[in-house]
Amino acid sequence: MPFIAAHKCWVFSCFAAGFFFLPSCKTNGDKTPAGTATQVAPVTDSLNSQLGLDKIKLPPGFSINLYALVPDARSMCVSPDGTVFVGTRENKVYAVTDKNHDGKADSVYVIAKGLNAPNGVAFRDGSLYIGTISVLYRMDNIESRLDNPPSPVVVFDKYPTASHHGNKFIAFGPDGKLYAPIGAPCNICDSPKPYASITRINPDGTGFEVFATGIRDCVGFAFSPVTHQLWFTDNGRDEMGDDIPSDELNNAPQPGMNFGYPYCHEGDILDPEYGKGKNCGDYTAPVKKLGAHVAALGMRFYDGQMFPAVYKNAIFIAEHGSWNRSILIGYRVVVATMDSSGHLGDPVPFAQGWLQNVASVNGRPVDVQVLSDGSLLVSDDYKGALYRITYKKP
User: Residue 330: which region, alpha, beta or left (left: phi > 0; alpha: psi -120 to 50)?
Assistant: First the structure.
């Protein structure tokens, strides 16, 4: 089995059983100490095929290959030196390096473990910030200590402890503050603040404030490279049928905006229980409706140089895929391109094929991340992998 030379409980037992790091292949019992590096085997056509990447459909000129196997790979961030940090919903955080800059990972390090769903990662001034369900941590000078990482130190420990919609996506804004969502602790309920919001905080843990409200479950956002405004995805509520309400792509150009949850969904549908006496016109409508139950998660603006000019400042969105729909949808990466006047087009499929038919799932994209060379990373927590999408003019 030529995938990884170490961490047999991660690869050999799970992959050989055909699970590809499925949730049934837990890694919480792994005794491997933090700082252990896993050497990455060469990426081959055979390996890509075994991962199902030969079935992924992309626009002409684009190709996709395995970048690294990372168990339960979720949200990502990249340092200026190119280290890719990966959060999980298990208990570990990883660092992935490509030291010879050949577009293929060389090593995968476990840099933290024993954390409570460390889904969120953000890098600033040499330090990695980690967002768990209720605690924000920091690891200083991390890139010089990948093989001997410091223990994470607590920056802020007053986020709610509810795990329902508690996964954090974190990122620094142009104002230097760290943004983090706090999802609703339910499918649908009128919960008190700071639930159902996006918050921000100073890097030292001071100055906590709610930035925007009426947001059910955001697990991905980014700041426009042009306007520097916040854009984010939000997952619509369940139990209203297959086709409503839609997941949303939203824009918050200023603090204090309310996006409707739990009273109004997708900008124009009042909630059957909590919408009585409310008016959808009182809340900010989404910029784009993304489809019901597609589970839109990570999103990024494309600011690289590799892809064709039409993708400049385009928004790429990872759709994790539906679990609560009679016919599955999502399980793909979509893109909405921006014209020269700044008008955003409707999202269209960009990378698809992880859903082979209405009942066969071969992967679940979670996040997207632009690398310095302009290629696009996609994380997949179903296969436990990072994929790299590149472009070469046909």
Answer: left
